[in-house]
Amino acid sequence: MEKKMNLLMFSGDYDKALAALILANSAREMNVDVTMFFAFWGLFLLRNPETFTLEEKTVYEKMFSMMTPKGPEDLPLSKMNMSGIGKQMLLEMMDDNEAPHLSDFLKGALKKGVKFRGCKLSMEIMGFKQEEMIPELEIVDAKEYLKDALEADMQLFI
Amino acid sequence: MEKKMNLLMFSGDYDKALAALILANSAREMNVDVTMFFAFWGLFLLRNPETFTLEEKTVYEKMFSMMTPKGPEDLPLSKMNMSGIGKQMLLEMMDDNEAPHLSDFLKGALKKGVKFRGCKLSMEIMGFKQEEMIPELEIVDAKEYLKDALEADMQLFI
Amino acid sequence: MEKKMNLLMFSGDYDKALAALILANSAREMNVDVTMFFAFWGLFLLRNPETFTLEEKTVYEKMFSMMTPKGPEDLPLSKMNMSGIGKQMLLEMMDDNEAPHLSDFLKGALKKGVKFRGCKLSMEIMGFKQEEMIPELEIVDAKEYLKDALEADMQLFI
């Protein structure tokens, strides 16, 4: 019988998103069904830098939109970010080991059939619009997340 | 058959506590059995600001009691807190969307029958007394947490 | 039937590692099978301060090796670390309650048969060598982690 994994992506950190997407890709290669549910800061990973807009937003939503990361490569590290120096160092170390970057793992996950779900309430509070996100993202509410997670064989809050 | 969810609340951040309590409330509305176990910084959420005391505490416990958040609305954000400016901005954005605040979700969870458990060892180390916490909190040890979590259909560390 | 717990150790914080090792020790005392999988910052906990080396490392790996914690007692707090003052305060409060320190819980977990696994890719990117880690650590890849976690009764991302 097919196994299921559900990841709740809350943090919006480069390193945590990297770990989660490596797990998601590996799980798909093992034929495990994978859902990733993005809430709060986690949604920054799925912003499409090319459809960024300030239209029809309140003043706070505009400020918030401008101050926060716009897509995968823009995310900070959870530790030792040091205004980006620590992150640059980690990226160089990844290159030395020919490890793909975050956006590569994201593309891989999309191609391999990982399901991408976004939290409706978080989208509303942050003022993000559907068209500002990657097209594969489906917006659902907390109950739809819970239904999926409760049926899964493992769940992580990342 | 009734499903069970167990959340280990470790972080003591406003945004993470908000996410957890939204999940807890939604789960109860779906008739899912919910236990929240509060350890370390997570216990700050359940301090009762009105029964705060410095009596019978060591010097370190007094300092610690004074320097740390006293109840739900006092918690910082996990990111972009910026000495409270970022949090104020998020609260304004929540108000614009008529989203309830953390203390509302906490009251909702208590009313809906979410079980609140606190970590005995954390309480002892931090010098918190039972009467300084919300009355619904039951103090248990790590083994009682594990027994509940191992029987649940999903567990998250938040 | 024997229950199984799987902990993914990502963070490398003193307080989170303490919580995880208390759970691991308690679970073993309840005869629960425990695997801890260390990735990214989590690996700092298992560095052996006595076999620290800069040989055969790139410039970035050397810098990274020197700037990061070297073993359990060197880890910072996830909150209120305040350049070590907050951590010192917490340690004094633990001593006042005769609570063991992190390295004691680590020794306990090793003695009680907790399985220690390290993430292969993280080791390569950070430039850590097997002989720089505690001897009980077995290096595995993401798929081996997933296989174990999917069979477990509970999984946490810490």
From TrEMBL, chains A, B, C:
One matching Pfam family: DrsE_2
InterPro entries: DsrE2-like, DsrEFH-like
SUPFAM superfamilies associated with the record: DsrEFH-like
Coiled-coil residues: none
Protein name: Sulfide reductase
The organism of origin for this protein: Geosporobacter ferrireducens
Record lineage: Bacteria, Bacillati, Bacillota, Clostridia, Peptostreptococcales
